[in-house]
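Hi team,

Filling in the usual template for the complex we talked about on Friday. All components are listed, including any nucleic acid strands or ligand strings, so the model treats them as one assembly.

SUBMITTER: L.P.
PURPOSE: interface mapping
COMPONENTS: two
RESIDUES: 794
SEQUENCES:
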Amino acid sequence: MLVDGIGLLATGDPQRGAGPLGTIPDATVVIDGGRVAWVGPSRSLPEAAGEDRLDVGGRCVLPGFVDAHTHLLFGGERAEEFAARLAGHPYTAGGIRDTVAATRAATDDELRRSAGRLATEALRGGTTTLEVKSGYGLTVDDERRLLEVAAGLETPGLPRVHRTFLGAHVVPPEYAGRADDYVTLVCDAMLDACAPLAAWCDVFCEQGAFDTEQSRAVLYAGKEHGLGLRIHANQLGRGPGARLAAELGATSADHLTHLTDDDIAALAGAGVVATLLPAAEFCTGSPPAPARRLLDAGATVALASDCNPGTSYTTSMALVVALACRTLGMTPDEAVHAATAGGAAALGLDDVGRVVPGHHADLLVLNAPSPVHLAYRPGVPLTWAVLRAGAEAWRAP
Amino acid sequence: MLVDGIGLLATGDPQRGAGPLGTIPDATVVIDGGRVAWVGPSRSLPEAAGEDRLDVGGRCVLPGFVDAHTHLLFGGERAEEFAARLAGHPYTAGGIRDTVAATRAATDDELRRSAGRLATEALRGGTTTLEVKSGYGLTVDDERRLLEVAAGLETPGLPRVHRTFLGAHVVPPEYAGRADDYVTLVCDAMLDACAPLAAWCDVFCEQGAFDTEQSRAVLYAGKEHGLGLRIHANQLGRGPGARLAAELGATSADHLTHLTDDDIAALAGAGVVATLLPAAEFCTGSPPAPARRLLDAGATVALASDCNPGTSYTTSMALVVALACRTLGMTPDEAVHAATAGGAAALGLDDVGRVVPGHHADLLVLNAPSPVHLAYRPGVPLTWAVLRAGAEAWRAP
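RESULT (copied from the run log):
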């Protein structure tokens, strides 16, 4: 099939078009078997490219967002904590425990409905690939249950789902004062049960969560269980997380609100993707992550939503792009690239995040003439259509 | 008809329920002839209240937003200027002139389509009353033409429209160096032509636009032509606008990013509504307006979108509420009140902005359990349905 009438195509590949997003005006995308088969100016379209076509009426097309950091699996909400924080109460990791209690109390059906609603919302916002973490169960059974719910999200009408085991999110109340015992549980029985259901192992390395040695133990165990590594690092203050990510060759280090120059050099040197979460900083009133310093140091930057009920209850990658431009000092091109190709890098994927031959035909069609409008028109739902594997998964009314 | 199954109703009247928004759980709204006839707990519903009913399934209902400051009538866009500003170029009022040129060049049909698209977008975002300014024509014919286009927006499927004459937006290029001559044109021929099409007269009182004497002359002339008064004041720096609003008894002073304590006392003392535009501050990287100092001084605060193609190209009052909480230090209750009842006060209206008997039955049904979610879930389209005069004007798919 063809997607044509594209006023501006952002391929995400600077070799294929203008600027950092590799844009091509008046473009066509040829799709075969759910994958991109050809992209280029419509006037150069190969003959016999097929008859089935979607004319997008001059709109802009870009890769679907790759949201590489979400916590979609939970029970309950924390609107009251949010309102209290607006009234001046500081954020600590403590609120996570409230969600743990609500998640354990939720039925499988409730968890499925809640996660499905958020994944649907994400898709309608243009997200076609979604990382989803466990981490609100914190027992062997509950963590496994969350990853099973995540597995159930894998349907053609929702974003592609990549599952992360985050048993080491916080120390659950029943292990208060016995953090090392909990780490042992995570590294042994919990990983044994959960690793078959996940591609990634994550840990919250932060004061109030897990220290350097505990985090290192969890990530080593994850690696032994065949999982790739990611880490919540340097969110609430300076700390060892970023350097640990570099030491262990983690694929992604996430948050990174508080970084020293040495941290930045370590991340860039080790090729760790810096996944920034400006919506979490916005919602908690935190300072902005040093995006410019990371980019200037040569680090690959990804942008993600951090969707979770405590500190960033949004699935909107468009808002994340707008915030990255206004609060992180990124240009619209940099932000859109970080929210697509950057997210793919953060998940170690080479078949999403760009509109180039061989990639999944996961496309976002905007009701706008260029990707700049994601930042230029904040808060406005700009999705016109979302294609996953070349099939229309959502069309705005 | 009835709207029932309301999990939480925010009436906007503290006498009718809890907290500043006067919330009632498990509520019903009775509508008769397009107006609210009764509100209260469902268990107290009067008999014979009618059979036609809309069950909102436990969702939250609040008054539709009253967006009291927009510039919806224009040709072209300024995405490039926006991107340049992100790269460090400062905002001056100069970009307005680019939009003036594009607006003059646009056909009536183009202006109608563009304004209709934005008004539709606003409605879907929950706005049921919309102030719309002229100001990108700046000739007698073009200003009149814009107000005629605005008059054409008044259809049941769009927000209620209140029209403002803003001939004194900037000095147009053909009057460069002859600002006083342009002010004379505005005060005489332009107001003669436009006043019959508008309810309000506005002026941009700012360095680079109009000074105190020019602004006073325009507002006097507007008053003589039977119009209510509003003013763009203290946006780019401290200046005379706020005090002029107090002196002339303007209904609303808008922007107010830069205020002295004397300005605040003058506004509060004169009963001028302070209409704050945090999306414009967000988009231009300006400091936040002193909302808390205004509220503490007893001023009535309204929140509006400032939708315009230069400095705030959004219709999303939900984003405005979220920004007001995060950047202006307002509580969610204060922000929602300012975006509904506050907007009504800024437009001198006593029949919109609350869900109380006698008011128009203009309701926003959220896909959420409380109005806090407008701030708690930034960037997420939360509209489930919008009623105007008791009729469903939009239902989300």
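MY TAKE: The first helix of chain B runs from residue 79 to 86. Chain B has a mean pLDDT of 96.

Thanks, L.
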